[in-house]
Structures are given as C-alpha cells and as structure tokens.
Amino acid sequence: PPNSAPSCAITAPVDGEVIVLGDGVQLIGQVDDADIGPDPLNVTWSSDRDGALGGSVPDSSGRVSLNAAALSAGTHQLSLQAMDELGEVCTAGVSLRVSQAPKVAISAPASGTQANEAQSLTFTAIVSSFVARARPPWSEGGRPAEVEEMAVGIDIGGTKIEAIVARRSGLHHL
Fold it and tell me: Are 72 and 64 in contact (CB under 8 A)?
C-alpha cells in the first residue's frame, strides 16, 4: 500500500491569540499517522520570526507540546510539522501576537495620602506603552486604542492600590 502523510493540528494557542512579551506560551498539538501511528513521528515547532523552537515527542495518543518561553515581540506564524519515516510531512499553523502590555502609573492621590472612610478621593492614572514608538503596540490604526475598562482597587487596610487597564487585545498591566 502507498504511504500516506501524517496528520497534524495545533490545539493551543488558538489562531490570533495575544500574549504579553516575556510570558511563555505552551504550544500543544495533535499528530497521527494512519500507517505507523504517532509514536515514531519526528515533530518540530517553528516561528517565522524566531526560527526553530524545538521538537516534541508524541505520546501514545499523539499529543505533543512545547513550552515556548522567549518569543520576540511581534506577530508570529507558528508551525507544527510532523514527518514520518518515509519523509511524508504535514504542517499546521496558527498566528500568535506577542505584545507589550501598557504601563499604568497612578499619579493621584500621592503615595502615602491618608483619608477616612467617608472622604471621597479622585484617582488619576497615566497609561502608556513600555517602549517609545511612533505607533505603540496597543494602538489601532496609528491612534491610541480605546480603553475598554479601567478599574482601581483599594485594599481596605490602605496598603495597596492597583490599577487595571484592559484593551481589545486583552492585555493588561497590574
């Protein structure tokens, strides 16, 4: 019988996912070969931006995974390739964007400001990019993206103030 090519699919990350620069991402896939099963397949992962990411050994169900810990900033076309013993190949791909989260600085009230429970305080936060660029990574069409949600939380003990910024891409900074 003629040799058939392996089959392969990337199950994580999902196509178009966005992660924060510096966060690793677990690459997960599924491979099989109708002729020989998944075990003897040679499986490799790569990025069009960063090159070879490493290899994976399929388990008996054909699941493969790789922790990609240090992807560079930008949009990556990630590829999973499985090759059988006769050189037949399958390739699966997804797009992944690695971006910097916006930087959030609370400018008011000043650090150490004290207030009683009945007193109203106004919070001011400055949201900016980590890297100065003509087009920040969290902009849309060259203009700053609209902030969908901005929340400020106060620890009742007065020891911690947090600002959270969410944007359409889902990135945020605490």
Answer: no
